[in-house]
Specification:
By secondary structure, this protein is an alpha/beta fold. Helices cover 37% and strands 20% of the residues.
């Protein structure tokens, strides 16, 4: 079910607008969904959200309910990007859309009542992979300086050959076949080859230094477990900061499918605690 503007307004708690902004050079314009706490008095932290959907589905209203919970608690301005989807738009189209949206947000921070020094990128699943790629791209292009990257069960490795990918084969919410389908839609024949860009599959990056502090979480019973653990380890090896949670028994998206389960409540609490620390630092 696609959330309506009334759902997002929460009885007047948020002002909601959909803004059309320039896309990457030579590409169509982008739609940004912007939710601002009503009566916001001064510059607030900005939360740049990238939706999930395996690179092939979803929209910029997906995942907004949890983001608005956080926005109410911390007074965040949430900006969610509508990026083009594969296979109609292969790499680098989706990540370039996200980068164009982030650059526009940072350049218009004063207009949006956002503190440009406190912008955090975030995403679930494919959106988490794109958020990680966006942090790499922004570092390498000397783009917006990010205060953090929140990578929730991120989709990072096109090779699909880890132990966890092989374990979750024919079972679960996003199994090995689903993963191969999503990556092939994005990369075509390049998937799994030596020519894949780290801006498509961030686990391919050879330099993870100079990145904003990362939060990474994943379930122990999902395809992305091993690649997410490896990514956190590579950040630490490069001297960076990462907080990693591997939730025992968690399957892909468990916190959405079973929101009242104890593990789901603990997952949300850990995310909130990290976000609070980032915003207070």
């Amino acid at each position: 079910m696609k959330l309506s503007d009334d759902d997002l307004r929460r009885d007047g708690a948020f002002d909601v607008e959909e803004r059309v902004v320039p896309g990457p050079t030579g590409a169509p314009d982008l739609s940004l969904l912007i939710c601002t706490p009503a009566g916001l008095a001064g510059p607030a932290p900005g939360f740049f959200l990238i939706h999930g959907g395996g690179m092939v589905s979803g929209n910029n209203r997906q995942g907004m309910l949890e983001m608005l919970d956080w926005a109410e608690e911390f007074g965040l301005v949430v900006v969610s990007v509508e990026y083009r989807l594969a296979p109609e738009t292969p790499h680098p189209g989706p990540v370039e859309d996200c980068y164009a949206g982030l650059v526009w947000t940072a350049e218009h921070a004063a207009e949006l009542n956002i503190d440009p020094a406190r912008i955090i990128v975030a995403g679930h699943s494919a959106g988490g992979g794109l958020a990680a790629a966006l942090a790499l791209l922004s570092r390498d292009r000397h783009g917006p300086a990010l205060a953090g990257q929140m990578l929730m069960c991120p989709m990072l490795d096109d090779r699909n050959n880890t132990v966890s990918a092989q374990q979750i084969d024919g079972i679960g919410i996003w199994d090995r076949t689903c993963n191969e389908t999503g990556w092939t839609a994005l990369l075509g024949d390049q998937r799994g080859s030596g020519d894949v860009s780290p801006y498509a599959a961030p686990i391919r990056a050879t330099d993870l230094s100079g990145l904003p502090p990362a939060f990474i979480d994943v379930g122990s019973a999902e395809t992305f477990r091993d690649e997410d653990v490896a990514y956190a380890s590579a950040i630490w090896a490069a001297g960076g900061v990462a907080e990693l949670h591997v939730w025992p028994g968690g399957y892909h998206g468990y916190y959405g499918f079973a929101p009242h389960a104890q593990i789901s409540r603990e997952t949300r609490a850990a995310r909130l605690q990290w976000l609070r620390r980032r915003l207070e630092s």
